[in-house]
Specification:
- The chain is of the alpha/beta class.
- The chain has a six-stranded parallel β-sheet, sandwiched between helices. The protein has a four-stranded antiparallel β-sheet with strand order 5-4-6-8, covered by helices on one side.
- α15 packs antiparallel against α17.
- The structure holds 5'-O-[(L-methionyl)-sulphamoyl]adenosine (MSP).
- 5'-O-[(L-methionyl)-sulphamoyl]adenosine binds next to β1, α1, α7 and β12.
């Protein structure tokens, strides 16, 4: 069986999860669910990044040990993944003993290969980003170019990784693997960065203790990024279970935010080259969400709490919005108005109403029993079929590459086309005129809904389960496979379907109070 290994970044557990975390993880979930639909053996990894100075400091502030502190936060992440319907296969923590072993093992391997040496580091360090910066990179001489916070001067003995040695090999690798970094404009940024020259990288610290000890010198702890990146290998059994490693490695897709692309496309491949391991197939960087045009920050008090919006608007509504509103890969802006607009427009009107009106007509004209598709097909029928099958094929190209908004656009074009088909066919007139063609049209309408159920499943898994139930597919949406969507005609004539139902209620939102309520709907005829 073909495998597919997809990862999220492992999240720092210095605070409770926010919208940004929910975003990357939902993206990975969509990719994982779709690959299962393709019949692949999927391994979907997420987890937490628990070492480093930032965590040590946050714990000290609360009078706890770092481990006690991270133990209080990890359940919050797991709880969010449950609420968001995240179907991860494994949750890794960098404090797991297997991980500590894997990091020390790979460190030693790079050392034995002559790529790690002891030197002295003096430079500017940003604690929140756990990153060194050169003088030139600093903003106004003292602020971090990534997070804009003040950096500190540090001087310490440090182990270095010979990153400079890998510059040409990296450039050659990008050249030979044009799909490795996406989107394209990000790829160019990385290439330009590497072309400017790579300096050796400090990969150990002596100024704090909360980390994995350097195996050859216990005075040092391993740099948190060297530690964190290795999680992708630990989770598939490195180094003890090489059968499993050989099965799943290299990862097919690392999903990351734009801020951590460099770590995944420059440092990580270089570490892997040094350790003699294969490079992942693709790293996709998404953009950042702002809120009402402003950066999310605790001090501004505008951080979007994912628990709250799921509770208020519904999990699938939120999942859908995140990938429909903003092209995956670009930055975007979150507002409640936009969220409500998408829910009422696309979910309630386009999709929800399509299901409800189809099932209502089937009930009214054929007592909810799927008819035998009678009469001869015309061009419009053929177009509907072809579009359904072509959309399935198109999703297969797009979703595994993380082109999640483009894929959703394809799905919506199909939803709109089905609505157009119904309006053109006007089943109510066919019924009035007593035309036999009505059977064929109703059949096509419910069959189109079967396709739509599979298409939306990765994005909105719990709604897709309701759809599968309404259509009496005889199995759960999560068990559907692409082989059932290569031909038209899966819905069996004679099946009695549900009478209708509201999948996505229209909502009313009061921007002043923040209150959300279900809008009163007109009874459909
Ligand atoms: N621990 C590292 C990752 C190590 S992976 C080997 C880390 N953690 S993080 O918790 O700070 O961030 C994780 C992810 O959240 C990043 O991909 C980042 O881009 C994403 N986001 C944080 N804020 C965000 C927004 N406002 N919008 C979208 N995503 C954002 O970095």
């Amino acid at each position: 069986m073909e495998k597919f290994y997809v990862t999220t970044p492992i999240y720092y557990v210095n605070d409770i999860p926010h919208l940004g975390h929910a975003y990357t993880t939902t993206a990975a979930d969509i990719v994982a669910r779709f690959n299962r639909f393709l019949g692949r053996d999927v391994f979907f990894l997420t987890g937490t990044d628990e070492h480093g100075q930032k965590i040590q400091q946050a714990a000290e502030k609360r009078g706890m040990t770092p481990k006690e502190f991270v133990d209080t936060l990890v359940p919050k992440f797991k709880e969010l993944w449950e609420k968001l319907n995240i179907s991860y296969d494994h949750f890794i923590r960098t404090t797991d003993p297997e991980h500590i072993k894997a990091v020390q093992y790979i460190f030693k391997k790079c050392y034995e290969n002559g790529d790690i040496y002891l030197g002295e580091y003096e430079g500017w360090y940003c604690i929140p980003c756990e990153t060194y910066h050169t003088e030139k990179e600093l903003l106004e001489g003292k602020y971090c170019p990534m997070c804009k916070r003040e950096v500190v001067r540090v001087k310490e003995e440090s182990y270095f990784f010979r990153l400079s040695k890998y510059q040409d090999r990296l450039l050659e690798f990008y050249e030979k693997n044009p799909d490795f970094i996406a989107p394209e404009f990000r790829r160019n940024e990385v290439i330009n960065f590497v072309k400017q020259g790579l300096k050796d990288l400090s990969i150990s610290r002596t100024s704090f203790t909360w980390g994995i000890p350097v195996p050859i010198n216990e005075k040092h702890v391993i740099y948190v990024w060297f530690d964190a990146l290795t999680n992708y290998l630990t989770a598939v059994g490195y180094p003890d279970n090489m059968d499993k490693v050989n099965h799943y490695w290299p990862a097919d897709l690392h999903l990351v935010g734009k801020d951590i692309l460099r770590f995944h496309t420059v440092y990580w491949p270089a570490f892997l080259m040094s350790a003699g391991l294969e490079i992942p197939k693709r790293v996709f960087a998404h953009g950042w969400w702002t809120v009402n045009g402003e950066k999310m920050s605790k001090s501004k008090g505008n951080v979007v709490n994912p628990f709250e919006i799921i509770e208020k608007f519904g999990v699938d509504q939120v999942r859908f919005f995140l990938f429909r509103e903003v092209s995956f890969g670009l930055d975007g802006d979150f507002t409640y108005e936009k969220l409500v607009g998408r829910i009422n427009g696309e979910l309630a009107n386009d999709l929800g109403n399509l299901f409800n009106r189809t099932l209502s007509m089937l009930k009214k004209y054929r007592k909810s029993v799927v008819p035998e598709p009678k009469g001869t097909e015309d061009e419009l029928d053929v177009e509907l079929k072809n579009k359904a099958i072509a959309t399935a094929a198109r999703l297969k190209e797009l979703i595994p590459k993380a082109e999640l908004t483009r894929a959703l656009e394809e799905i919506w074009q199909f939803v709109s086309f089905v609505n157009f088909y119904i309006d053109r066919r006007a089943p109510w007139s066919l019924n009035k005129e007593g035309k036999e063609e009505l059977d064929r049209v109703l059949y096509n309408m419910v069959e189109a809904l079967r396709f739509i159920t599979a298409f939306v499943y990765p994005y909105m898994p719990s709604s897709a389960e309701k759809m599968a139930e309404m259509l009496k597919l005889g199995k759960k949406a999560e068990s559907l496979r692409i082989s059932e969507f290569e031909e038209w005609g899966g819905i069996k004539p004679g099946t009695e379907l549900e009478k209708g139902g509201i999948l996505f209620p229209r909502i009313e939102y009061n921007p002043e109070t923040g209150e959300v309520s279900i809008a009163k709907t007109k009874k459909s005829k």
